[in-house]
Amino acid sequence: MASLKFEHIYKVYDGGVKAVSDLNLTIDDNEFVVFVGPSGCGKSTTLRMIAGLEEITSGNLYIDGKVVNDLSPKDRDITMVFQNYALYPHMTVYDNMAFGLKMAKVPKEEIKKRIENAAEILGLTPYLSRKPTALSGGQRQRVALGRSIVREPKVFLLDEPLSNLDAKLRVSMRSEITKLHRRLQTTFVYVTHDQTEAMTMGTKIVVMKNGIVQQVDTPTNLYDHPANVFVATFLGSPQMNLFDAKLEQDGNDYYAVITKNDSKFKTKIHISTIHQLISYSYIGKDIILGIRPEEIFDVDENEEDAVPVIIDVIEKLGSEIVCYCQIENTDISLVVKLDGRKEVREGDKIFVKFHTRHVHLFDKDSEKRISGISNDNYIKATLNYDKSNIQFADKTIEISEETKTKILPEFRKDCHILMKIPTNSFKLKSETDTDIAFEGKIEIVEQSKEQTLVYISMPHKKSYIGVKLHKHDYQEGEKITLYVALDDITFYDENLQNRIVSRYAFTDNSCSCKIKTNKKGVNEISFGKFKLKGNLGLEDGEYKMTLPYDCLHTVNKRKDVNKTSHLKFKCVNEDELGLNTILYANLDNFENYLCIKANKEDTCFKKTKQIFNVDLDKIIFSKL
Length: 624
Ligand code: ADP
Fold this sequence. Notes:
Strand order of the largest sheet: 6-7-8-3-9-10
Largest sheet: 6 strands, mixed
Oligomer: single chain
Helix content: 10-25%
Shape: globular
Bound molecules: adenosine-5'-diphosphate
Radius of gyration: 29 Å
Structural class: alpha+beta
């Protein structure tokens, strides 16, 4: 039994592929966590780092509170079951399971006891004396699992263990592994690209894309509250319908107007979805509207607001029928799931309605969820940089001088921002003076097996905030005061693209340099071992040179290197802010470290030095 903790974990392979970026995650003892995502998203790399088979480039991995980055695989008390489980063909099932234990010099009696126990759990007792060739695929996979069980590991790692099995076996092995987890009461970490495996087996699912965690949640929350368009469409089959739409208000009612080419279609949006918007400024704006095929249902032609659709293609799946349709006289297509007993044919006209409580709304640019967020609240606020505060509703939060030095330079003015407050960071009692109090009224209570999700209205704020609380009888209409620690709040730009406060302070990126004009009339700028050339029209002499953090641009292809004004050096650290990575470098001449705004794919964890083209026009020179 063990818990795992990932703290700012990065894995960058030789050649600079960022396989895993800034992974922060806690896996509790006895949890069944599934990593899921398309091929190449970094799942196996993560698993291999836990096993110790892959070196961690940066960050700390903890097992039971101890850093294990440098601990060898055999000392980690972890076993791994792979997709290609190689059993020894000349050995019996018993010997296959005993092999690792014999190597570890476990006494014979103990080996026997453990194998008999594992065989019992896995239903392999009758097959212990058989050779692998005399077993079915499923039985062989169970032997592979048995080999792991007998080692009594603290953590089980499973890397797509079922992908070589046929569909039927996969289904039965899925439930066998779930049962095994229950019996062994051990931490399981499972990797798969198969959404059904993830949804049916995991108690906690980590969805990854391009090495970045997209959402960590229970299967139900992932399905009902996907954090972005990627998660929304990755889980669920057929996938969620997505439409370009605009939110509109008409008196007390709200609509989404879906448009495609010249076609328009108006659908009502439930008031609770509007109350759960992260900001009312989305009303009147273009957004993405999502609705799952099963949340569109067929109705009688005479029903109010019934939408006529023409069925183009039908897929009969037995218990349900998937219909690929087009809204009549429009270019707008949609997928609808109907009851399997329904009599429909291609070309038929049917009438449908949207389950308006179950529409999903996403920001058009960042594709992040903007309504009914289960894990985080995004609250619109104003940053007053000069006054060192942030204001929202009727509250003012003071920000420290230290925080101010970490704010991205382009946000150092009065501007709108979003505060991200995790729904589980609210407390019923204040613990420090800096805790922020939220007084509100309980509007909606959603009770699930695990927790209570409460939506609260606050004075001066139109939309509600979501709060996860431990089970308790909360009454709608009740007044409540909740507290959040300032450290639990993260600040984002208005478009949800970037975190705007980095982990480290921005330095002034200044150093002294010499400028000399060469025979051709070109300025040569030298500082330390570096030299840049350009027509700056400056007289010769000593200057203070300040590099704005966006004046260096990473170049990865030789042909793109600017011959006269480029710099080549190694960066030592980085911070991922969303669209941007901030790189940090120590250059001799600079008093402090240098901060560079780079693209999200850029990384300091490459073996080779990074080349940067320099935008000379942006550099500020002042004569010394
Ligand atoms: P997944 O398990 O999600 O399919 P992986 O963790 O295997 O993804 O790979 C993540 C990324 O790292 C991919 O882009 C892959 O090409 C790259 N990668 C994996 N292993 C290596 C390696 N040994 N050397 C270089 N790149 C690798």
